[in-house]
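Worked Example 4.2. Consider the chain below.
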Amino acid sequence: MKQKSPTAEKLAEIIKEEIEKGIFGEPGRQFLSTRHLGEKYSCSLVTAQKVMVRLREEGIITLSGKKYYMTHGKIGRKTPFAKVRGEAKKLIGFHVTNIESPFFAALVKEAERAASKRGYRLITASSRYHMHEETEILRTFCEVGAAGILSCPGTGEGTASLYKNYILPCVFLCRKPRNIRADVVLVDNYSAGKNVARHLCTEGYRSFAYIGFDNLQKGEDERFAGFCAGLAAAGYRLPESHVLRIDAEKPETAERSAKHFLRTFREPVAVFCFQDLLAVETFKACRSLKKSVPEEVAICGFDNLAVSEVTAKPLTTVGYPIRNMAEAAVDMLVRRMEGNEKAAEECAVTPSLFIRESTRKDAKKPVGPLIDYNVLYKI
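Applying the procedure from the previous section yields the following structure tokens:
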């Protein structure tokens, strides 16, 4: 009786195990073609194609041109895949979570400029905070011949697994998945949050609130953690009822949520927003509630976007040199692509607190276009 051929799923598992055992050679070596795989394992071409798709989806093999290469581990510099990658166009992939954000748009623009100066082209893709899309983007960067990538990774629980065995050199910006050893360019969000708290306390506020997003868990939001620590150092605490988390998938609900939230405060309150765009929605809520800024509600944002200077009252906000971040990230990545095998680097930029009218109770004090808070910090 003829033995029944294994299913595509079962055969994919068998071949995956063989690849990981090194039966086909080290990572970076060329793998079988679809036709040769069908001949070797006595299966139909349709089954062989399904197996190839399964192995590609798991990152075990990668298609470059018309050939498949094994990419289940670190790629040796002298392997065929490394050679193909080296001969590819000087291309850098850049993954961001939300290209519609003014911050990410500005970061992409500066990264394009920095890459161009070094002879590279930049291709950008946004995952919209969906892990499946981020997975597809990373695989696409490999298949179009990118020599390395920049990534502002998502915040989901499985994000680290996407990058753990990623085959291209990678530099993270703004955040880094837990337990991943890689180059990263960061902002000290924690210290920034502390300085915001210090400023608001100095202005005489005694009630405080925070507005952020729900896709960042409490322990992952360093701006929030720093703000709480700064308040605690001054003898204040931030009750849970004074924290509002906006649905990151529905940012259009921010104004309505902030309006409902601010109704609960009877005394003047100082609100620290995770980003400037949330601060703008908070301004709108105050206008709807006829609450004056900063007398009844002080508002501080984060990112120092252009919108911060055109709100009803110029917005106090934290800003940092986006160009410096992009330059540092591209420099790190180019060094990795050129063979730098030193330990992972961490680069920190120096942010500043720009104090404007939205948090200043004394309106008689002169207000400059950009006033650096005198307590700056470095890592």
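The domain at 8-74 is CATH 1.10.10.10 (Arc Repressor Mutant, subunit A). The radius of gyration is 25 Å. Compare this with Example 4.1 before moving on.
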